[in-house]
Amino acid sequence: MTGRFCYRCGISEEEGGPLIEGLCQVCFRKENPLLLLEEEINTELCQNCGSYRKHGTWVDPETYELEDLIFEVADNALIEAIEGLLGEKVRHYEILSMDELERITELSVGEAVVAFEPVEWHIEYFPAIVTYGVRLKARIHELQRELHDEKKHVTVYVRQTICPRCSRFLGGYFEAILQVRAEGRPLGEAERREVEDIVSQKIDEIMRKDRMGFIQDTIEKDEGLDFYMGSKGSARKLAQAIRDRFGGTINEAYELVGIDRQTSKEVYRTSVSVRIPKFQRGDVVTDRHGKVYLVEHVDGRGIELRNLETQERERMDWKTAKRDDLREIEYETEEAMVTSIRRDEVQFMDMRTYETFEMRKPNVELEEGEVYVLIRTGSDRYVEGKKEVE
């Protein structure tokens, strides 16, 4: 009986191993190469922020050390080129070190392992050039006795450019304005600093997910702060973070600013306004029942109050505060020394005029000879607390 022969080289099946699609083992591997990488690959690195394209999307780098950054960008370009080789023949692949790949002798059908390492590079100036040695092992047919084992040298050119984000940032682009205001009053200095701290802490987290979430500019105004933002989403997230801290409301307004030349659609700029409550620490307020409180803390969940008559502390959520018609009242502070304490009354001496006056004994521990800060609303006086020693 006549044996079968490889139609490419003529070797018999007995000598060349089981034929695969009419080819001996060696010819099958030669006729089905897998490491079909181009000898040169071009990629880009943003000269302003260090970002680069990954799977078609600009991403921030893991490192900003220039040498490490160049290799990160070049490695990524090579890996994406390798991934582009995968198809029906290779369903799964893994990247290993050269030493690990050397030890691989068996693979399942449709599996491949790849290793690469830089063998030469010039990164002193751009375009940076990194040449890699690449090696691949794979098995693509069940009759294969030996794995595909292919090697190639590939040169990656890393060129400088400006990414879309930096191009827009450098061009003064902004998509939204975040306006931070307080209800019925200017934003206080302490509040301004805290808002700026919230923005500073939150913006890095936002930009990890939204590359256009940058702050183009910050404008201080008498009434509050304006942040010019690269995206509407980032402005909304910052507004939410500020409201979570202070409470208040968020509103949006839109302004037509032009027509997109590519899509012919109208382009709108968004103003995201967060208005924090008018109350702040140290305010004196009253409710619809006439109770007088000192504001001790304000946050996104509500307001903490001290009843100045009973000295009891209460907490109201914002819904309750609105229902109880909580509002500011005018007040003055004065310093007075306790001169005598009786069963139901306390005598004070005004430290400014040295006049004495009596008031009903408050629900707070007092000591004769000590100076206290009093809050005066109309004809009523309340003890805020002992004067702190400077």
Overview of this structure, please?
The protein has 5 domains: 1-31, no CATH class; 39-164, no CATH class; 172-276; 284-325; 332-386, OB fold (Dihydrolipoamide Acetyltransferase, E2P), CATH 2.40.50. The mean pLDDT is 91. It is built from 8 helices and 22 strands. The protein is 21% helix and 39% strand. The protein has helices spanning 13-16, 25-31, 66-83, 98-102, 164-170, 189-209, 232-246, 318-323, and strands at residues 40-46, 52-54, 57-59, 92-95, 111-122, 128-139, 148-161, 176-182, 215-220, 224-229, 249-259, 266-276, 284-286, 292-298, 302-307, 313-317, 327-328, 332-341, 345-350, 356-360, 371-377, 380-386. Helix 6 (189-209) crosses helix 7 (232-246). By secondary structure, the chain is an alpha+beta fold. The longest helix is centred in the middle third of the chain and has 21 residues, at 189-209. The chain starts with 12 loop residues before the first helix and ends with a strand. The strands form 5 sheets. The protein has a 5-stranded mixed beta sheet.
